[in-house]
């Protein structure tokens, strides 16, 4: 699911996405999830692209009435919270060691990671943290597999989930 504030932010920032600054994470698959992601991950290979994206995205959101209220900075990451009448959204700009291939041009949200890359990362996060949100996201994606089959090997995805002992609940007959 996608909230109004998430949709507004993604659509507004779409022209800023490129091979040097692509959308990643749960916001790529938000339309397939049962929960509403509250953050937007934007990945980069280079420091200059990272800095340029922060400036461009902040300017776009500010012009739309978003107000930056909080920032957390680390060596290769900046997370900034933006508040708007529609709600709150966090943007997480990150420098990554490699670019997923292929990147996909999405006419609504701009250049994004492919589903296979997003799912692989979600599986890794689940392996390391076993968080319920990642489990539920993976099971939801399994139910939405037809929407991803052009970018994801569904048989491989199923086997990866089986290895993690994740299976979609089945209906029992009494």
Automatic annotation (TrEMBL):
User: So which domain of life are we looking at?
Assistant: Bacteria
Give the protein name, as stated in the record.
Nucleotidyl transferase AbiEii/AbiGii toxin family protein
């Amino acid at each position: 699911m996608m909230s109004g504030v998430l949709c507004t932010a993604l659509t507004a920032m779409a022209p800023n996405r490129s091979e040097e600054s692509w959308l990643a994470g749960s916001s790529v698959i938000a339309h397939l999830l049962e929960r509403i992601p509250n953050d937007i991950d934007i990945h980069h290979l280079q420091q200059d692209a990272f800095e340029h994206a922060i400036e461009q995205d902040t300017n776009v959101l500010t012009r739309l009435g978003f107000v930056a209220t909080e920032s957390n900075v680390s060596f290769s990451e900046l997370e900034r919270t933006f508040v708007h009448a529609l709600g709150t959204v966090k943007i997480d700009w990150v420098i990554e060691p490699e670019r997923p291939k292929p990147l996909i041009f999405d006419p609504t949200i701009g250049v994004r990671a492919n589903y296979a890359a997003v799912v692989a990362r979600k599986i890794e996060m689940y392996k390391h943290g076993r968080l319920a949100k990642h489990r539920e996201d993976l099971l939801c994606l399994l139910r939405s597999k037809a929407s991803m089959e052009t970018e994801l090997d569904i048989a491989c995805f199923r086997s990866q989930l089986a290895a993690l002992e994740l299976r979609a609940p089945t209906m029992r007959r009494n």
